[in-house]
Amino acid sequence: MGAACCSDHPAGHIMVSELKDFGDPVNLTPMDSGFVEMPWAVAKAPVPGWTPPALQVTFMRQDGSLASVTFMRQPLGVSFGGHAPIVIKRVVPGSHGEELGVQPGWRVVAVNGNDVSHLDFGNIYERLRHASSMLLTA
Rounded to whole angstroms, how far apart are CA atoms 90 and 72? Predict the structure, then answer.
């Protein structure tokens, strides 16, 4: 009554965070998080039709063209200055951002399809922070 374990989650693996003895298994209960709660274990398994959270960021490249990147996990692996517009200063080698092709000098112009080019740094940062906090952790 208290064993803990976990495994990878790439769509299909089950992560069990804590086993509890609640007697015989009964109904599976879908949770708002997209996981299933089982009475005999607090388990996290993808619910059929569940889509993992994503963060779509549209960048303007230095040449004026747009690049849309969809982050699926955190950390993102990018850094930027503390002012608007948000411009990527550094991409961490081996990071999710590098895997997706993000480049220093790219400017954030939209977050999850919402134009942020006219917003101040605090608003853009909060949108990025909130959306990225929903992503799975690598």
Answer: 19
Please provide the average confidence, as pLDDT, over all residues in the chain: 78
- Residue 75: name the closest of 5, 135, 11, 7 by CA: 135
pTM listed for this prediction: 0.67
Name every residue whose Cβ is closer than 8 Å to that of residue 114 and which is 6 or more positions away in sequence.
127
Contact 29, 37 (CB under 8 A): yes
Q: How far apart are CA 67 and CA 108, in angstroms?
A: 10
Question: How big, in percent rounded to 5, are the helix, strand and coil portions of the chain?
Answer: 10, 35, 55
φ and ψ of 97, to 5 deg = -60, -40
Contact 98, 135 (CB under 8 A): no
Q: What is the four-CA torsion angle of 49, 52, 57, 63, rounded to 10 degrees?
A: -80
pLDDT, tens digit (0-9, with 9 covering 90-100), for 60-119? 999 999 999 999 999 999 999 999 999 999 999 999 999 999 999 999 999 999 999 999
Distance, in Å, from the CA atom of 56 to the CA atom of 67, rounded to the nearest integer, reads 10
